Protein 1
Amino acid sequence: MSLAQHSHTQARRRLRLPSTWSVGAALIAALVLGPILAVFWIAAFPSQNIWPHLVSTTLPRYLSNTLILMFGVGLLAGASGSGAAWLISRYDFPGRRWLEYLLLLPLAIPAYVGAYALVDFLEYAGPVQTGLRQLMGWQTARDYWFPEIRSMGAAIIVLAAALYPYVYLLARNAFREQSASSDEVAQSLGVGALGRFWRVGLPLARPAIAAGMAIVMMEAVNDFGTVDYFAVQTLTTGIFSVWLQSNNAGGAAQIASTVLALVILLVLLEKSSRRRMRFFNLSTRHRPIERRPLSGVAAAFALTACLVPFVMGFVLPGGVILNHALDNADNWAVPALWKAGLHTLTVGGIAAVLTVLGGIFLVYGVRISRAPLPRLLMPVTTIGYAAPGAVLGVGILIPLAGFDHVLADTVEAVTGIDIGLVLTGSAFALVLAYFVRFFAISQGAADAAMGRVSPNLAAAARSLGRTQGQTLRQVYYPLIRASIASSLLLVFVDCVKELPATLLLRPFNYETLATRVHDQASLENLGQAAPAAVLVILTGLAAVALLARANR
């Protein structure tokens, strides 16, 4: 260290000034938490308080529908995901090796795309009902009964089919890690295969399954495209209705605060259940459970049970969308499609880079800082991922619009130039929403990657005169760049698929692939929506491939 650097460090220590890394980490944490705190502030001090009106009219319906949707999707996704994970991890049957990874593919298809595909496939003019009428000789809908497609039940099925991989992935890993000893003891006591699942395997894997179901339920609360298309009124659709149709931002914030309270309660319950349940492997010789071969009826049942969620979550929606994309090949040449693709690539790419850089800065700043505040704020910044996109839209757009007007008026008063709304009139708000929403992904990846780097390497670099920034670039970065590249891809894919925040925060006449799919499908024009949906699915497949590779 040079004499000047030494003197600067000694002076800062005497003045007890926080380091640049500490200040930066605290600012990033404040940026992530700001929109969430803004929602509660706007809800507590609205310009026009319609809370009593909401409570007496629409809020109970929004809340009850949201709870039904949450628990319905959670239970169905939990049952299908944990059941498939048990069969894949404990038994060997034809197709098992392929299905182990194929069961992850529904993560590539957003739930709203699945909703459009299901309605197109099962509606009155769709191939199923048309085929039934031709086969049975029916003439009109009065001649037969068919379940209502746009309903709560259909929304639960679509969301569960799209989200069950979260449960499947965590449950599969939990079942794999269980010891053969417990299974053998249960078998020696005469417990059958189903009994071992209920009494041994499931209780031991319950924390992982509960965590997966909590993620699924939070994603169900966040969903807008599916429930809006199926005309199911939830808290998320209520935010759009009260804000955009009734023009009441305070009422929207009050509904958003209800959503946040519900999500925070769900997170606390999930953490509490895992804290109360701890399992340890007491055997000094841990032996993994060997998969048992199945044949005949048992193999056919296992194969069918694993195929059903895969077909519902990937084959059906992917096949319908691809069919429309091929039948309407001329729509691939529409300029609006590629303009939306360019917007998606630009905004998603910028947001992904900034989010990953912010995560690295925060984690590294907390690691080298002695200040307690950044350490306290770091775990709280993950709440952004649990906050629905519509909630973040409220917390970002309203304060940002106020600041934007003040900025424009100030610049005009000083220079005489009207710069307009440079923040809310551009994609800045959209990038900020993506940053807050998916910051937990980059933070978690950076924290895990840096945790695998020995502190001795950083200490050695510092002893050789390297600054904190040089240590990050020359020591940490070469060792963590693979994890950073993975988190960059995952954040980008989530930005591409995000719909509620994009609908609320996009500038006027600004389309992304997700909003183009939603807008065209809402107009019952699935042929125009299909090319954009295919591009979204292809982007999602890249992330699923990365996820499958990391969880071999």
Protein 2
Amino acid sequence: MDTNDNHPVFSRSLYKIKIPENLPSGSTVLTLNATDTDEGSNSEIEYSLRKKGQDHILDLFEIDSKTGAISVKGKVDYEENRAFEIHAEASDKGQPPMSAHCKVLVEVLDLNDNAPEITVTSLLNTVKEDAEVGAAIALVSVLDKDSGNNGAVKAVIASKTPFKLDTNYRNYYSLVVNGPLDRETTDEYNVTIIATDEGAPPLSSTSIISVHVSDVNDNSPRFSDPILNIYVKENSPVGAVIKTLTATDADVDKNGQVSYSFLKSSSDSLPFPTMININSESGDIISLQSFNYEELKTFQFKVQATDSGVPPLSSNVTVNVLILDENDNSPTILAPYSEHGSVNSESIPYSAEAGYFVAKIRAVDADSGYNALLSYHLSEPKGNNLFRIGTSTGEIRTKRRMSDNDLKTHPLVVLVSDNGEPSLSATVSIDVVVVESTAEIQTQFRHVPVKEDRFSDLNLYLLIAIVSVSVIFLLSLITLIAVRCHRTDGTFSRYSAPMITTHPDGSWAYSKATQQYDVCFSSDTLKSDVVVCPAPFPPVDGELISINGGDTFTRTQTLPNKEKVSAHWS
């Protein structure tokens, strides 16, 4: 009878195998083989793994008790365990059972199953826009748990940004500034870092770093235009906002807070701070007085816009204030018909023909433009058919000859209106007296006993203007006569001597051989215009007659010595 006197024997006492990590559960890694020379149940072998001291082995591996096949039942990870030492046992079924032991060394092979890990340590929450190139913003470390080429990692910045990665030591980098920063253009950058290993196939990971750019006071306030024109109507109410100035600053917070003030200059001739004020916060320009176009038509000042940065930055704008005329002045009748408290009268002969000159009303308006464009009308008597007045000249003339049925005294009321909106007007009364002969014609004034203390400024200016025009006219006339008297015989034959001709209506004419001018005077030369009317003859060579507009004319003549002589009439 066989007795159990032989131990099981493994084919090898030490097994060495290599397995890749991440083998699927149930995969067989090795089959053990043991034999027993006994017979019967004494030779039947059962396989097992030693339980003492290798609990983690039992979690990952198992053995088939009949076949001896060792298989994987857990996750084999190279990064956790690179090798295993498994102790196996083979026992027969004899009484008492006998057993044998063997050792299995399992080497785990690394696979590229781990992507690189990126760790960012920020040094600055924000970076100033004036940061210098090379300033460090963050520390970046890259780690790959794999080994060999599977763990060799390279990190790069994916997008184009003003930053770069500087290598410190192996897989440690510094994120630094690599170009100029401008918060007004870009206030935040998302820096994408990509880390890639050298495995096959390679694995990579991505990390995004947000870099905030903080503001510095590098932008001064800016006005839309360097020169600004403001149009203000005269008589505007005091305290009205005539304009709001706005300057923009591309900076933020205090660097972008703008305040406004007047910029003082030594060349300022007007005390504009007493005329206007400016709100330092809103930029509103407020009038401190009501403007009068007749006194002040325009003035200029400068406004400075300053931010609250450190140091503060500023810029200037030149403001031109243009006062717009309003129709706030009525026409003023000029002397002699404007004399206060007077009743005006003119005399005309009974034999006066149609178109006989009676009087001329002159008026001025302190306004400008259409507001000062005057027109003359006869407002009384209604239905008048004896007199007419020039709408633009103010000349009163007869429409027809006198008849026996006409009155001897004709009270006329002349209305002078401007072209403003609404129109303003003034009136003057004239009594036209019809006399039998021209010898009785004289201008009579019935004065109310009113005495002025001094000569008005308007009359003084008017008198100076009349005297100046008269002197210029006389000097021009004398110069022309003197030049012509000194000409040679040949030249004198071309320009004949002047001739004065008296007309029946009391006017006279200054005549030449090639050109004639009619100069008409009324009975009172102090209050009437000298009207120079060119006759329909062409001017001689070198002579030019210019109509300046209204009732003024200019005569320009080139003398033989190339000298030009000009004379003006109104």
